[in-house]
Amino acid sequence: MASGDKTQHFEMLGKSLFKLYESEMYSDLKIACGWDIHKVHKAIVCPRSTFFTAACNGNFKEGLENMIHLPDDDPVVVREMVYYLYNLDLVGYEFVPEDGNFVEEELSDTEYDGATIRRMEWLGHRFVGNRFVGNRRVKRLVPKLGVRIGPPKNLRLFAKVYAIGEKYGIPGLKAIALSKFETLAKAYAQTEDFRLAAEEVYTSTIDQDRGMRDVVVKTVEENIALLNDAGFEALAKNTELGHDLLMKLTSTRRAG
Predict the structure, then answer these.
(1) Residue 181 and residue 215 in contact, taking contact as beta carbons nearer than 8 Å
(2) How far is CA 165 from the centre of its chain?
(3) What's CA 5's distance to the chain center, in Å?
(4) Which of 81, 197, 224, 244 is least surrounded, with the fewest CB atoms within 10 Å of its CB?
(5) Which residues have a Cβ under 8 Å from the Cβ of 216 and sit 6 or more positions away?
(6) 28-67 per-residue burial string, b: 16 or more CB within 10 A, e: under 16
(7) Where does the sequence pass through the membrane (predicted)?
(8) What distance in Å separates the CA atoms of residue 157 and residue 80, rounded to the nearest whole number?
């Protein structure tokens, strides 16, 4: 089979999975978090998560009742997790430009049901009736940064997504959250959102999990003036960030 044919079939598979995600047809497991109840499929969720595999196997209450409660998690983060399990991507918060003339908006051809609309509105997306406002076309030749990579508040969101990926044993979720976080950190290092995200990283990950922490350390090293900010200085003093920065700066000087 030619590689082009494989690509086409993978695209068809992706569309089928998204349809299952949207419609919740044939679901055999419910994940409850806050007011949300996600109707999912064990055959899709369990192979990608050690936690869900364990919960659905054997004689655990969750597996017998086909209902898993996640009362301690952020519903927005759980929505991102469920979206990833079907689509291998993250949605994040939508960038909304201050200049209303910057983009043109079109309504989607697809009409969405009430449950999907509520779920997507929680993530900042907008609807007119039951049609999604999307397909934004940037009028300028070079898109604004936020249109291309999303708003800075996604930094903290993706830090939380990374942590929940570790919590529920979903390596792929951690990897994509880390990749998106790194892109955002380079662009938004000077924002309050980055400081809040750095705090999230250093309070939600363990010392041995270097993924997000190394990105934060590298970003601060490249923007060392951040430590002149009282909030960032306090963060460095009250978490392992200060120690990590010292070790990184010492290593860099020795190498130089």
Answers:
(1) yes
(2) 10
(3) 30
(4) 224
(5) 185, 197, 198, 201, 202, 241
(6) ebbbebeebebbbbbebbbebbebbeebbeeeeebbeeee
(7) none
(8) 9
pLDDT digits (tens, 9 = 90+) for 164-213: 999 999 999 999 999 999 999 988 998 999 999 999 999 999 989 999 99
On whether the CB atoms of residues 93 and 123 are closer than 8 A, the answer is yes
What pLDDT digit, counting tens, does each position of 81-109 carry?
999 999 999 999 877 665 544 444 566 66
Rounded Cα distance between 222 and 231, Å, is 18
Amino acid symbol at 8? Q
CB 90 within 8 A of CB 161: yes
- Residue 237 in tokens: 């003093």
SS3 37: strand
Of 172, 242, 165, the closest CA to residue 205 belongs to 165
Q: Which two tokens stand for residue 240?
A: 């392992």
Q: Hunting for tokens 């900042």 — which residue is that?
A: 124
Structure tokens at 186: 């380079």
